[in-house]
Specification:
The protein is built from 5 helices and 12 strands. The protein is an alpha+beta fold.
């Protein structure tokens, strides 16, 4: 079952009206970001923090038993509205932003893959932080960027735990495969474009 996170749905998570934007304004249906969570899986996550400013929306999710201050797994959804910035340059900029905000003893942004999904260009990277100098913990992030028509979308799965030194990352292989499978199934769809139409049976995410 797909969980739908449209631009309007993210805004709803940030405290705005939960009604779809097009229902409130008469606007045509908008592009939508689809995350391959079942309803049961989605119950294990909660909103850790969220924010919205002109041109940008973000929601960070953590496991229900954890907090935004103390977590070991995180799911982040970022939407850069009306962005025409080239996806490859954008992903490289993510490394610069990460290093500026959370300097690590060793930071590497490595391309994992990239292909067209439902007609949209994608870019998959992993970000390695062997030891964060601020908190002494290691961090590992898989980042999927999607160049949409209405926005640029970035979905991140992150781990935080003991410092490590292996460039292959600290995740167990089974969990890494699960993360990659999850990210590979993410889609952007557009009900306005028949070739990129959204699948049936969508359920709105939080």
């Amino acid at each position: 079952m797909w969980l739908r996170i449209a631009i309007a749905a993210i805004a709803a998570a940030c405290g705005f009206s939960p009604l779809p934007l097009q229902a409130q304004t008469g606007m045509p249906p908008a592009e939508q970001l689809l995350l391959p969570f079942s309803a049961e899986e989605w119950k294990s996550w909660k909103v850790g923090t969220q924010g919205k400013r002109p041109g940008f929306t973000m929601v960070e999710y953590v496991p229900k038993a954890q907090t935004i201050q103390d977590w070991d797994r995180m799911l982040t959804v970022q939407i850069f509205h009306n962005s025409s910035f080239p996806l490859p340059l954008f992903m490289m900029g993510m490394k610069t932003a990460f290093e500026t905000k959370q300097p690590c003893e060793q930071t590497k942004l490595q391309a994992v893959g990239g292909k067209k999904i439902n007609g949209y260009e994608t870019s998959l990277h992993r970000l390695i932080c062997t030891r964060n100098k601020q908190n002494g913990k290691g961090e590992f992030t898989l980042m999927l960027g999607i160049q949409g028509r209405d926005a640029l979308y970035v979905v991140q799965r992150a781990w935080r735990g003991a410092a490590y030194s292996d460039d292959s990352g600290p995740l167990p292989k089974a969990e890494l495969r699960s993360w990659l499978s999850f990210l590979e199934k993410i889609q952007v769809c557009d009900p306005r474009v028949p070739q990129q139409a959204c699948p049936n049976g969508l359920q709105r995410g939080r």
